[in-house]
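Please, is this right?
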Amino acid sequence: MGKVISRVSFADAQRNGLMKPVIYCGDFAKGEVKSINLELAKELETLRPNRRTMQLEACFNRVLDSLPDNVVIKDFDVMFNPAYKVDVLKILVASCKRKPFSVVWPGKYEDGKLFYAEEGYPDYKMFDINNYDVTCVI
């Protein structure tokens, strides 16, 4: 289901019709880019550790609600904490249905997959974009 387009094509492409969220796989997002790690960590800190996994999406949505529509976000690494057993990309897709935004991916893209961290580390994650309604701009 995921879609991959080059950044050259994206410059001319209409955002309408693209699967959401748009994921920039490189540092070439247009417009203001907002770091959300600190705000999200503050939201999570108010919760007991054993409740954070269940409340991560709600906390993310509260931070997102404080930002303008169509914002580009970056630095959401706190969501990849191995203690939180969540599908981060699934949360991004669900949240984008509520409020439009794009992200600067904090890892790498390769052969239809998004990677976070390096293999062998506890926070390593691999996402096959064919399993998600996203558009990756490479």
